[in-house]
Amino acid sequence: MANDRENRINQILNAAFEVFVRKGYSKTTMDDIVEASNLSKGALYHYYGSKKELFISLIDHWEIYTFQDFYDKKSNDKKASDILRLFSKNVIKTFTDKKNSYVAEIEFRAMSIQDLEIKERSNLLYNKLLDLFEKVVAKGIKEKEFKELDVRKTAMTILAIFQGISWFVVADEKFVTPEDYINDSIELIISSISR
């Protein structure tokens, strides 16, 4: 039974993701999501009471859809620099396979300026990603791979590099590929913080 519920929620979230990316938050209606999901309006409202509630849930869905947890128990066997490179590969793969996920990120950022509740949820995601990068940086320092440095500022710099991939959705960049941008930027950071 829980499996049916989970499938239905994923069906709604996948449809909402597609509609919000295509139309933007302000132009999307619950009827658009009903149509895209092939579910009844009653089914949609059974799980989500409003467009805003659905949009906030989509931030969690986006996180799972876009990023794997790159820092887990298996990370203990890897150098911090290799964990960052692994995350780089994941970002590039996501950009190549699911470019719309970065369009969605732009929409989340835009809405977080306009709505306090969306801003708070976006900040939770931001802090979660920062915490993960802090763990990687701290691991590198502890294992003497990285210099002694400010862990938070370094984590913010790394996150900013990865968030920069969104510009490849907006800008018509012809001279640098997303792969080169990510790979070269992360290597620049690794070389600057390595002992």
Quick structural gist:
This protein is mainly α and 195 residues long. It has 10 helices and no strands.
What does this entry look like structurally?
By secondary structure, this protein is mainly α. The chain is built from 10 helices and no strands. It has helices spanning 2-23, 30-37, 41-47, 51-66, 80-97, 100-114, 116-142, 151-163, 167-170, 178-193. Helix 1 crosses helix 4 (51-66), helix 4 runs parallel beside helix 7 and helix 5 runs antiparallel to helix 7. The longest helix has 27 residues, at 116-142.
How are the SSEs ordered, and which strands pair?
Blueprint: H1 2-23, H2 30-37, H3 41-47, H4 51-66, H5 80-97, H6 100-114, H7 116-142, H8 151-163, H9 167-170, H10 178-193
Question: Top keywords for this entry?
Answer:
195 residues; mainly alpha; Arc Repressor Mutant, subunit A; Tetracycline Repressor, domain 2; 2 domains; elongated
Question: What's the architecture of the largest domain in CATH terms?
Answer: Orthogonal Bundle
* CATH topology heading of the largest domain: Tetracycline Repressor, domain 2
Residue share in helices?
A: over 70%
Could you name the ranges where pLDDT drops below 50 across 5 or more consecutive residues?
Answer: none
The ordered string of helix (H) and strand (E) elements is HHHHHHHHHH
CATH class category name of the largest domain = Mainly Alpha
Count all strands and give the number: 0
Distance between the termini: 54 Å
Beta-strand share of residues? under 5%
Structural class designation: mainly alpha
CA radius of gyration = 19 Å
Number of individual domains: 2
Number of helices: 10
> Mean pLDDT, nearest integer?
88
Please identify which CATH superfamily of the largest domain we are dealing with: Tetracycline Repressor, domain 2
Question: What global shape is seen?
Answer: elongated
- What does the largest sheet look like? none
